[in-house]
Design brief:
alpha+beta; ten-stranded antiparallel β-sheet; five-stranded parallel β-sheet; 15 strands; globular; CYTH-like_dom_sf; phosphatidic acid binding; GTP binding
Length: 435
């Protein structure tokens, strides 16, 4: 990454009661401050208001609705204050939001939430997907670490264990659908849980932590056999229309693509540059785009690839966040009926298989299989034809050095009228395949 490129990275740290959110925020702040970043910590709006004497038990239904609406308005304004400060800073800035906009939806009905969205001109894509770079959910100790669950250290906390589990699930469900959503469960001891949380953020940002935050979490991909069960068999889910287009690249060992992702006519746009493996890791540079920049970049579409159309279903099951990609026509015949399930997990082999959704028929794991990379799936030519650009692995031949052959992190994105917004995240994955 160009050292002159200032970065502002916005995360939401959410979770259930006694999940490690307070400790995690302090540790995360210290970690990034030691890297030279400016860290802003946005306070939890609900705690600020509730500590002023408000009691939910004293509110009638209309008052409770108005309170949640004003809470969300207040939260957005407080966040905007920190966002503007970060944008005006000359330093790299990490903004840690203690809960975020979608958390409010966990405390009112779906109908009330839709009413609130409509009356204020808000929508889920803007509040959930476009407002924050990453969501991290810290699972309550009441789910998997019951011996450590306590309410003694929090003035506004009085939940029993069953209620804590319910609140935890509701808080996680509120964020289902965000493209970069990490669930940090209690499968390890608390210290490792905190390190996994920090590592998940560093990994999405492309920050090399060496062996300071050892974690074996990685993306896993599975082939799903159809037909899929009916919608009522799934846990609560969010469906998105997703469109991918590969772009022409100036370098033979890099891939560039555009993603358009949306619900109900509201869209988010992302430009991704995928680079060869460095120390066993694929480097991805992701940049959020405006609609205008997205349309302009479409002029660079690589016509040797089909446009990929998917329905992406996001859901939580067994404390794992899953994305189910259902390929749609028009497409190459190889994609007809194709369904792939992805998750990001630190669970070891065997344990992850046990956590996979039981209502889906999993054929096999295809992590690292180039036949199931989106790059290869979208190729117009048959894979065994002479003109095929089938990619077995993104790597630079030994005869070429990284410094001599690969542009810097910001290369490949043209500077159009008005420019491209600052990079929102570089993702490092331990996959050895193209996506």
């Amino acid at each position: 990454m160009d050292s002159k490129e200032k970065r502002v990275y916005k995360i939401v740290l959410t979770g259930g009661p006694c999940g490690g959110k307070t400790t995690g925020q302090a540790r995360l702040s210290t970690f990034f401050e030691n890297l030279g970043w400016k860290v802003f910590r946005v306070p939890e709006t609900a705690t600020v208001l509730l500590s002023g004497g408000i009691k939910f038990s004293d509110l009638n239904a209309d008052q409770a609705y108005r309170f949640q609406e004003n809470l969300l308005r207040t939260m957005l304004q407080i966040e905007n204050t920190f966002f503007e400060l970060a944008e005006s800073s000359n330093r790299d800035c990490l903004i840690i939001c203690d809960r975020g906009a979608m958390d409010a939806s966990a405390f009112i009905s779906k109908e009330q939430w839709e009413k609130m969205m409509s009356s204020n001109g808000w929508n889920n894509v803007e509040l959930r997907d476009n407002r924050y770079n990453q969501i991290v959910h810290m699972v309550t100790a009441a789910n998997g670490a019951e011996d450590f669950y306590t309410t003694e250290d929090h003035a506004c906390r009085s939940e029993g264990m069953e209620l804590a589990r319910e609140l935890d699930y509701n808080a996680a469900s509120a964020w289902v659908g965000h493209p970069y959503f990490d669930v940090i469960d209690n499968s390890t001891e608390f210290e490792k849980k905190i390190r996994r949380m920090i590592a998940s953020i560093c990994q999405k940002m492309g920050i090399d932590t060496g062996d300071r935050l050892l974690t074996n979490a990685r993306k896993r991909k599975f082939l799903v056999q159809g037909p899929l069960p009916s919608d009522d068999i799934f846990p609560p889910f969010q469906d998105f229309e997703v469109v991918h287009n590969y772009l022409t690249s100036n370098h033979p060992y890099m891939q560039a693509r555009l993603r358009k992702r949306g619900q109900k006519g509201h869209w988010s746009y992302t430009h991704t540059i995928r680079k060869p493996r460095i120390h066993g890791q694929i480097v991805e540079v992701k940049t959020q785009l405006t609609h205008r920049d997205y349309v302009n970049l479409l002029n660079q579409k690589d016509n040797s690839h089909f446009t990929i159309y998917k329905k992406r279903r996001c859901f939580l099951d067994n404390n794992q966040y899953f994305q189910l990609d259902i390929y749609k026509t028009p497409c190459h015949p190889r994609c007809n009926g194709l369904v792939l399930l992805e998750t990001y997990s630190a669970l070891e082999d065997g344990h992850l298989e046990e956590a996979l959704p039981k209502f889906l028929t999993i054929s096999c794991e295809v992590t690292g299989d180039p036949q199931y990379s989106m790059y290869n799936l979208s190729l117009r030519a048959d894979w065994n034809s002479a003109e095929s650009k089938f990619c077995h692995s993104l790597k630079v031949p030994d005869s070429e050095s990284m410094n001599g052959g690969i542009p810097n992190m910001n290369g490949g994105i043209p500077n159009m009228n008005g420019g491209i917004p600052n990079m929102n995240g570089i993702s490092l994955t331990s996959e050895n395949h193209v996506k």
